[in-house]
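Training component of the fellowship. As part of building independent skills, the fellow (R.M.) carried out the full modelling exercise for a liganded target. The chosen ligand was S-adenosylmethionine. The inputs are recorded below so that the supervisory panel can assess the work.
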Amino acid sequence: MPATLTDPFGRRIDYVRLSVTDRCDLRCLYCLPEDYRDFTEPAEWLGFDEIVRVIGAFAALGVQRVRITGGEPLVRKQLPQLTARLARLPGITDLSLSTNAVALARHAAALREAGITRINVSLDSLQPERFRDITRGRLDKVLEGLRAAKAAGFTPIKINMVVMRGINDDETVDMVRFCSDNGFTLRFIETMPIGSTGQTATSHYIDLQQVRERIEQHFTLVPGVMPGGGPARYVQVAGTDLRIGFITPLSQHFCATCNRVRLAVDGRLHLCLGQEHSFDFRTLLRAGATDRELREAVIEAIALKPERHEFNEKPQQVVRFMAKTGG
Ligand SMILES: C[S@@+](CC[C@H](N)C(=O)[O-])C[C@H]1O[C@@H](n2cnc3c(N)ncnc32)[C@H](O)[C@@H]1O
Ligand code: SF4
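Fellow's submitted model of the complex:
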């Protein structure tokens, strides 16, 4: 069996995004419909033992990095216990979390203790009413969560802002100042046409080059690097430690260097955010697959990875919601 995973296009796959739930305590307008209730049921969720076995199979095949995501991962009960088990898996060297931070104040210390080092927090507005309009949630909870994350010692803390024309694009400069003042890294993200919500939200699509030009009217940007920076292209604000990443799946896609796959809570491995190719691990697990069979299945699944998304050519293609895939 190979020591590393390579897909049909020669890309080394060393990163799994693990969705521990498709549920969420927010309803971001580009992600989940406000009245959405069609979540998977507990019987469909992979249990912690099942998750550890699948991630263990990936780790045995050279995957070193796992990001825990959702839905909102903090709504899954006993997440620190799962985290600690994943952190102990041989080969896993980097465990991180994506969260909306609503419940982070309660969990930050336990998650840091359990082995998560890096954390990404979604934050699309610094204005309480606007934040509520975008997410249907409370900004003060998120800010409280961010303070707890700093106190717990996560580093880096990255802020993810989905920029939407006419909704929050006038706040990008404020967000730069906020991140600079707090020692956070900032990443701007283009709205993707994922699910009906994402497809509607792309009517507010803005090319991040325009965001960059607006920021350059206020700050001098110099080339920047970010270890483990993923698909973002980074700049640094001259004279500060602030790094800003631009994630541009639509205006400049980065599929040629894609190194990741996504395991959803129902055990389905999604090979691409923008395509339907997937592989069902739950059925295998529940049919009594051995560890060797799981590793063989991982290799089989990676062979299904498509070359690229088609967000521009086929924007109606992905009907599942982002929270379902694991963003
Ligand atoms: C699905 S969320 C899951 C983790 C957590 N609930 C959070 O919001 O950070 C992961 C990321 O996906 C982003 N996202 C969701 N739907 C999106 C869309 N249609 N276009 C671009 N980004 C999206 C969110 O902003 C967030 O940064
Ligand atoms: S982006 Fe994250 S916080 Fe917002 S609805 Fe989706 S899963 Fe929830």
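The panel noted the following from the submitted structure. The mean pLDDT is 94. The first helix runs from residue 48 to 60.
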